[in-house]
Amino acid sequence: MDLLEYQGKQLFARHGVPVPAGRPAATADEAVTAADAVGYPCVVKAQVQIGGRGKLGGIKVASGREEAREHAAAILGMDIRGLRVHEVWVEEASEIEGEYYASIVFDRSAHAPLIMFSTRGGVDIEQVAEEDPGAIATLHVDPLLGYQQFHGRRLAFEAGIDADLVRPLTALLEKLYAAFVGEDAMLVEVNPLIVTPERELRALDAKVTLDGNALFRHPDNAALRNPSAEDPQEQMAKERGLTYVKLDGDIGILGNGAGLVMSTLDVVAQAGGRPANFLDAGGGSKADAIVAAVEVILSDEKVRAVLFNIFGGITRCDEVAKGLIEAFERVRPQVPFVVRLDGTNDEEGRRLLSDAQLPGLEVEATMLGAAERVVELAAATPALEAR
């Protein structure tokens, strides 16, 4: 789960990471109240989960109340790379003597947190990595050992920062690591990490990604979820307890089990089709789950045809068939369906579908046959948005 900037800064502050004082606001009036509280000059910052806000007019400095109101009114409701601004963060202006970059990310290949630090902050780290890879100091931390003082010193020396900032940086990285571990994060990033004229370090931005599987341990963090920033289909699936990822194609995909769904995506692509989604209804899919899955898939107007690929182990194929029959009665799909049932009670499932004579539904015996047929049907069917 990605946090907004101000949510990340509030999380940092809980762990002692220095951040500028600020307040969130959802209206221009609230922004003026927040600006009065933090003082002038202040900065009004659009809160969207994407970078490059400043270049697009989403970050403005206000020297007084009227400017704060004017900037907030202009930023609220903006569309920044497809994301609408619903909140702004009003924070005290900072004097900047230098800009660094610091982040901690979980490196799956190394099975350990990776700390990255660079004296070239304020720009995209990808750009730095491309232009001058040596400008980024990196270090893996043994999860059992945890962050130690020598980790910070090594990063500081490799990056070549001024001697008087080595200890402050070491202490700040320790707090950042504590936030990373304590909040079950997958990424914490500060860009820029500024040096003030008083030679203090302060997080001027915050990018935080939390492990969604660990939110049950952090109810306060779970409440930070921002549904308005999520894809509508993914939000709908999450509310129904389904695992769903939206893709760019026009063939809806449903299977029971992540491995089977991934295989189905590959076979559809092999047959020349483009999957519209990844949807795993789970290993013990019941009729209600199938109905919910159909509703989610068909909510995407780009879908031209749907492939159900079910292998019955824990899942019973007759339950899947009952769910499909109920879904057709409730939703009345306008696109063709291709169904492949194999495994537990597959004959009963196919019999139920045959007896129901559902319009636009075809049954195929093999995965490859089903994939080839759904690709043919998708090519011959206009998308919902065109009908």
Number of helices: 13
Mean pLDDT comes to: 91
Structural classification: alpha+beta
Work out the strand percent. 15-25%
First-last Cα distance: 35 Å
* Rounded radius of gyration (Å): 26 Å
Low-pLDDT segments, ≥5 res: none
Describe the 3D structure.
It is a single chain. This protein is an alpha+beta fold and 387 residues long. It contains 13 helices and 18 strands.
Short descriptors:
387 residues; alpha+beta; four-stranded antiparallel β-sheet; 18 strands; 37% helix
Topology:
Layout: H1 5-14, E1 22-25, H2 28-38, E2 42-46, E3 59-62, H3 65-75, E4 79-80, E5 83-84, E6 88-92, E7 98-107, E8 112-118, H4 125-131, E9 136-140, H5 149-159, H6 166-182, E10 185-195, E11 201-203, E12 207-210, H7 219-222, H8 232-239, E13 243-246, E14 251-255, H9 258-270, E15 277-280, H10 287-298, E16 305-312, H11 317-331, E17 337-343, H12 346-356, E18 361-363, H13 367-380
Parallel strand pairs: 14-16, 16-17, 17-18
Antiparallel strand pairs: 1-6, 2-3, 2-6, 4-5, 7-8, 7-10, 8-9, 10-11, 10-12, 13-15
Helix pairs in contact: 2-3, 5-6, 8-10, 10-11, 11-12
